[in-house]
Amino acid sequence: MGTTTTNGNKGGLPVKLTRKDYQSDQDVRWCPGCGDYAILAQVQKVFAELNINRDETVFVSGIGCSSRFPYYMNTYGMHSIHGRAPAFATGLKVSRPDLNVWVITGDGDGLSIGGNHLIHCLRRNVDLKIILFNNRIYGLTKGQYSPTSELGKRSPSTPLGSTDNPFNPLSIALGAGASFVARSIDTDVKHLQATLKRAAAHKGTAFIEVYQNCNVFNDLTFINVTGKDVKADRQMPLTHGQPLVFGKDKDKGIRMTPNGIPEIVSVGDGDGQVPLSEVPLHDETVADPGYAFMLGQLQHPNFPVPIGVLRAVEAPTYDEMVADQIQLAKSQAKATDIESLWHMGDTWDAGSTAE
Amino acid sequence: MQSQQESASHTPIPAANPIEEVDTVVIRFCGDSGDGMQLTGSEFTKVSALAGNDLSTLPDFPAEIRAPAGTIAGVSGFQLQFSSRVVFTPGDQPDVLVAMNPAALKSNLEDLKKGGSLILNTGAFTKGNITKATYETNPLEDGSLDGYKTYKIDITKLTKECLKDSGLNSKSIDRCKNFFALGLTFWMYNRPIEPEVESINKKFAKKPELAKANIQVFKAGYHYGETAEVFTESFEVRAADIPPGRYRNIMGNSATAIGLVTGAQLAGVELFFAGYPITPASSILHELSRYKAFGATTFQAEDEIAAACAAVGGSFGGAIGMTASSGPGIALKGEALGLALSLELPMVIVNVQRGGPSTGLPTKTEQSDLLQCLYGRNGESPMPVIAAMTPSDCFYTAIEAVRIAIKYMTPVMLMTDGYLANGSEPWKLPKKEDIKPFPTTFRTDPEGYQVYARDEETLARAWVKPGTPGLAHRVGGLEKDALTGNVSYDPHNHEAMCHTRAAKVMAVQNSMGELLMNGPDQGDLLMVGWGSTYGAITKATNLMQDEGYSVSSCHLRWIHPFHPKLGALLKRFKKVVVAEMNLGQLVKVLRAEYLIDCEPLCKVQGKPFKVIEICNKIAERAGKVS
Fold first, then answer.
1. pLDDT tens digits for B125-155?
2. Given A10, A338, A353, which is nearest B244 (Cβ)?
3. Cβ contact (<8 Å) for B317 and A339?
């Protein structure tokens, strides 16, 4: 800290920023091999590519491994308390709508101790970008199962296996009415960059779940979905306007049965196959969250896991509506000087000078 | 504004009954929660204020919005002391008790002065209501009211009669009966009726038929007093000799809200207030949400924790972050307050105390959160704590909280309580030039910026708004290097930071106002108080000084740190008694801080001290001046 961080373009000469310009002077202290490094690198790359003003950006985090993130970004930043980052960020954004505010959280921070703040932030549609690093474990406290750990997870606090049903972060976000919901993967560099760019461009709360590997306490937890040899069959990349297909040869698709339940179909023109034209096209902008919720519920091993933007709809933001009300109140006020506030209501003159 | 003389000239003064002049009256209106007693009380307050009386009020209502009708649990009351002299408290004992039903009589009669006036709505004394109030016999008939001047009036029936042609249904008619009682008391104390008619019209502007009915009943009550010859006399309380100026009747929470807005304006910063509904603090949020045009942004958060966190977020952004709550909510906010003091950001936290522990007595007053406010956070976490002493003083104390917060870059706890929050008194409105601004300087110069470098005098670090070019920096709850603010686990750095944070809070002593003393600065007994006990302690001390006792009182606005002159003062008295509405919290701190023997005078009944209770203690502990 303390190094000066001007963007260097005040003399009128635009300077192309690089990833390095977004690195703070602090040593990054995550475990070697942690998925967090990859996410940090992609955020920095994307910020450079978008030429985002460091001095107008604030990263806010809670507590946990991922929440050390702000210390490593050469922007304004606050490492706050466990689970509360969305609340700090909401206060900041509502009082300073001009700032570009990002929230970094994890599955324990955002979904367990801070679940309440997360859902309320999403329902309000505060103009914040939230990245939830999901490694399905408590890393900083040494390996307890988290709210996204699978049923039966053995951990120091569940030696016989967890008896908790896990949360699905996307379903939570969609259930709370989030206007932008996406999923990406720490190791899928291109996809993560593209997803971050989409979030950066969204007005309103943008929620991204990133599958992140904790190689110390929960190594390979997503390997069944992210492994090189299996990912084509177990991930379904979503592209707006494109059919819901997956597989190396794009020969499998998702469609709804007449009962409204998703099913996997073989796509093609052969016998027993469904022609590509009959596979639904992905539409991020469906106003009814039911469609995106259906996608979010697709889980391994029964279904391919959707990757990409599930939902991106336009909606008024909380901070914008608050600012509008204040503007309106100011424009309609008869007086705004402090003495007129003191004199509001019934007043009277008393004492010896009273008439 | 119309002067009171002008209005009074329109009022026919009853000729038949003699008018007795009295200097002080305590009146209490009580009835069922649905009977509108709070409205009746506040309307009577308004007219007393307009008449130039000094006054103090104490609303007392149950935690349930509508407890079962007719039960003791559902009784709601409003007490008012008004006088031609200076008033310090809402009064120990009512001179007049207006009881709208048997339950109200049952739960309030013991407070009425012996020989006091009792106005009863006999219409509510049905067999059912008498049983609900747990009376075994009808108090109207069993002689239990013999020691009082009892006026038995069937207000229910008279109201019904008065409105029989109004077209209102019987439920709506019944709801008007509080205005009959109000009219009656207006007659008793020779109050002008025009301002009240105006007030009713304003209050019920959207329901003109109710305005009309209430006015009709109000006037009927007034004329009943005049003509029914139930009362033998009426009274007059002259205007008090108070400092000249423009006045406004103010409740503590309103004064707090206005003070917070004023403080932010004096500092030249935006105000960001985040709150969560809790009794008795909610009205601060309500009030501030109406002051958007004066620079207040408000946010109703999802919980108490989020409210505190959002306020810290606001402060990080360069607004003065604020939150208000009561004990249970303050407990939830503790961790966020620890962060605020570790980040060294300015913030104001208002604790409107109520009875505890746990949910306790939500609508009753207490001062039992002092130790919570001083110490209720993990780690070495010093925070300035100040307390308001009267409803209007909430205004000045709120400004002081903002001043300290910004000057010293620290969260500040502002303590009030339910008694101050809902109680009211006339507030002499200040002139703008009476209140000194304290403009804020944000750092904008990147040259040599170190995040935790400090001002030599205040030990405060610089406040930097995000968005300032060249000053991007990171702060967090981990211990930080004393200069750069980078994360540091160095043991000596941590110790130095703990000392520095404590020293910074102690530095508040350098910019305090005067210590508030009443009486000589040495003698037999010093009564010490903080917060809302000011009125009762001051009144009792004055009375006992007049009786010849060697007693003084000292009231603490600054509780952490204490006033620099306090230690020496305490040692100039033979005895020190601390009166507080808890089991002795300030007394513990004073003993620890100054190694002196001080004695607690405690009360935890959810009610403020009576003057007499403090007088008795003074008589016990102080000698007479020879």
1. 999 999 999 999 999 999 999 999 999 999 9
2. A353
3. no
